[in-house]
């Protein structure tokens, strides 16, 4: 398993205090910044465009982890790769089938960007198992995508265990990320199940950023 990474989700950032909060994030132990991109169609919410990513990239020295919750992932992947994303995660449910999923993984890698594939709570990741070497990350959603502040779905940890078993058995470098309802307690359960990237929105931003990131990082 790789070193644990904390990826604060900017969905919960206080946009009246952007500069201050970005400075705090940049000097915290969080190495990644998680961008929730929503199109108002794949999910019932609308968020950030590429210019926000470009601006934030100038303000922080962090990995730009872009999660596109969109119905047209090919279009958004190109736009966010051009804007400077380091990793782009799209939804399995947004592509036609597993062949289209693998084609998009290869396309994103061909742009020099790492790729992740995400599954919503009702989707099994089983179809991904034979293709994990095509992905740098699998994102297990532990809430229905769309909004921050929801409760963690503990049943999603079975998906994490399944993925961890396969990744370790094959010796792949694929990371497992979890997103939704992560706090000290749920983060610990997720790490024990095999996650190596924790996305956290409300938990990080509704307290002291440095302290909250450290609590997630060192709760093992
Ligand atoms: O992608 C999403 C929601 O769709 C998440 O990234 C949330 O932003 C996480 O927020 P919390 O559940 O941690 O508040």
TrEMBL record:
Keyword tags: Carbohydrate metabolism, Cobalt, Isomerase, Manganese, Metal-binding, Zinc
Protein origin, superkingdom: Bacteria
Catalytic activity, EC: 5.1.3.1
Pfam families: Ribul_P_3_epim
Enzyme class: isomerase
Reaction catalysis annotation: D-ribulose 5-phosphate = D-xylulose 5-phosphate
Manner of cofactor binding, per the entry note: Binds 1 divalent metal cation per subunit.
Pathway: Carbohydrate degradation
Gene3D superfamilies, sorted: Aldolase class I
GO BP term, example: pentose catabolic process
Binding site for substrate: 9, 67, 146-149, 179-181, 201-202
GO MF term (any one): D-ribulose-phosphate 3-epimerase activity
GO CC annotations on file: cytoplasm
Active site feature: 36, 179
Cofactor: Mn(2+); Fe(2+); Zn(2+); a divalent metal cation
Cited SUPFAM superfamilies: Ribulose-phoshate binding barrel
Keyword set includes Translocase: no
InterPro entries given in the database record: Aldolase_TIM (IPR013785), Ribul_P_3_epim (IPR026019), Ribul_P_3_epim-like (IPR000056), RibuloseP-bd_barrel (IPR011060)
Ligand binding (a divalent metal cation): 34, 36, 67, 179
NCBIfam families the UniProt entry points to: PRK05581.1-4, rpe
Family of the protein in this entry: Belongs to the ribulose-phosphate 3-epimerase family.
Role according to the record: Catalyzes the reversible epimerization of D-ribulose 5-phosphate to D-xylulose 5-phosphate.
Protein name per its UniProtKB record: Ribulose-phosphate 3-epimerase
């Amino acid at each position: 398993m790789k070193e644990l990474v904390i990826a604060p989700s900017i969905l919960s950032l206080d946009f009246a205090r952007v500069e201050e909060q970005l400075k705090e994030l940049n000097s915290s132990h969080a190495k990644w910044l998680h961008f929730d991109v929503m199109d108002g169609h794949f999910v019932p919410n609308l968020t950030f465009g590429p210019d926000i990513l470009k601006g934030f990239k100038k303000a922080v020295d962090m990995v730009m982890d872009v999660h596109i919750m969109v119905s047209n992932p090919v279009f958004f992947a190109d736009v966010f790769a051009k804007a400077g994303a380091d990793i782009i995660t799209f939804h399995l449910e947004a592509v036609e089938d597993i062949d289209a999923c693998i084609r998009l993984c290869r396309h994103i890698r061909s742009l020099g960007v790492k790729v992740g594939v995400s599954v919503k709570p009702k989707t099994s990741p089983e179809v991904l198992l034979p293709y994990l070497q095509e992905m740098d990350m699998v994102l297990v959603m532990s809430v229905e995508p769309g909004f921050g502040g929801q409760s963690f779905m503990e049943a999603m940890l079975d998906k994490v265990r399944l993925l961890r078993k396969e990744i370790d058995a094959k010796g792949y470098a694929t990371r497992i990320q979890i997103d939704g309802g992560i706090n000290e307690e749920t983060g610990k359960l997720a790490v024990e199940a095999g996650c190596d990237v924790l996305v956290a929105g409300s938990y990080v931003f509704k307290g002291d950023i440095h302290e909250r990131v450290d609590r997630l990082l060192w709760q093992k």
